[in-house]
Amino acid sequence: MADSSNATETARSRSRGIRATGRRRKGPTRRRRALKIALCALAACVLLGGAGIGYLYIKLNGNLKGVDINAALGDDRPRNADNGSMDILVMGSDSRAGKNGDYGRDEGTARSDTAMVVHVYEGHKKASVVSIPRDTMIQRPDCTTKDGKKIPGQRRAMFNTAFEAGGPACAVKTVESMSGIRMDHFVEVDFTGFKKLIDALGGVDITTTKAINDKDSHLNLPPGKHTLNGEQALGLVRTRHGVPGGDGSDLGRIQLQQTFVKALMDQVKNIGVLGNPARLYRIADTATSAITTDTDLDSVNELMGLSKSLGGIGSQNIHMVTLPVTYDPADPNRVLPLAAQSRQVWDALRQDQDIPKSATKNSAGDKGGTSGYVK
To answer: Which residue of 49, 147, 227, 345 sits 20 to 30 Å from the alpha carbon of 319, by its own alpha carbon?
Structure first.
């Protein structure tokens, strides 16, 4: 491809928020070539599928829902660092709308039940994930809803109210305000979508070292090996009371979520779908129906590009931490960010460096009492 074409593509990538590395890549190794071939075969099966050419592409594209974060936030955002890294805000919505009503009632709004900042380092071979407890008390910035309604900021607000007050754009703005890091992408999945995706994958294998019995999340697992279906997987990532030794807080639930995410990654890499186009389509159809993304990711082409970019990262190359916090003296059911240590976390990611161990030392965030109970 000509140099002018490369420059154009680089400029286009930066305008979308996907950062170029700024370095000439080395020739692909045999392993990376094999990965690329597998991904291309995957794309061919999904997009062509042996049926009417283009039909499946249109069907999958039609499943995707996008939110224009860039238009909603304008220029009031951190600088887009061009160091080859990428930052993605991944959120789980606790909306009780539709079939999600099986998990309780709400007032017609959704909050962020799970929030993770995924930082992919330059070269896209490793990542750090920072979980933000939903009960963290933060200063929420002014936001604007998708219909133009102004939402005033709040000095002392629970983190998960940002999504409730102003939707995905307000959640992104709040995370950017906390971290000083511009989010390149946003991905949201709700309860029902999560369950369907796990079922389409054939379940996720885990091992429990102690029994988990939580009547609130409807999960009852004896010690041992399990293949969790969608309902059980959702129960696990929502569990906060039924784990022996856990403190019953969101902090313990986060530790279970982090363990599950790694197990899910391993499962996705190990499933054999290339020889089974029907199952492959079922997974793709479920996945694209389950998520809401920013508008820079709301097409099959963009998602495939992201998949190729991140395809070399294994669970062993992901470092997961919880935002450094302490229990709120005014309310033991809430937590407060540890200012100096939180800055260490965000500064490290902003500079594309590993999170130092000192950042999480003495934090309540990694002491929820549930680590080691699920493998």
So the answer is: 227
Q: What is the pLDDT of residues 294-325, one digit of tens each?
A: 999 999 889 888 887 887 888 899 999 999 99
Nearest residue to 14 (alpha-carbon basis) of 80, 74, 90 = 80
What CA–CA distance (Å, rounded) separates 321 from 262? 13
**Sequence ranges of the domains in the chain:** 3-366
**Is 3.40.630.190 the CATH classification of the domain at 3-366?**
yes
> Which two tokens mark 282?
């079922």
Cα angle for residues 116, 159, 339 (degrees, 5° grid): 85
Q: Quick one: which of 367, 354, 372 has its CA closest to 129?
A: 354
Cα–Cα separations (whole angstroms), residue 244 to 161, 233, 248, 318, 368: 29, 18, 10, 26, 11
| Element holding 221 (H helix, E strand) | strand 219-221
Provide the H-helix boundaries in the chain.
3-16, 30-47, 55-63, 69-73, 161-179, 191-200, 230-238, 250-270, 277-290, 300-310, 339-350
* Sole residue written with tokens 């996705």: 268
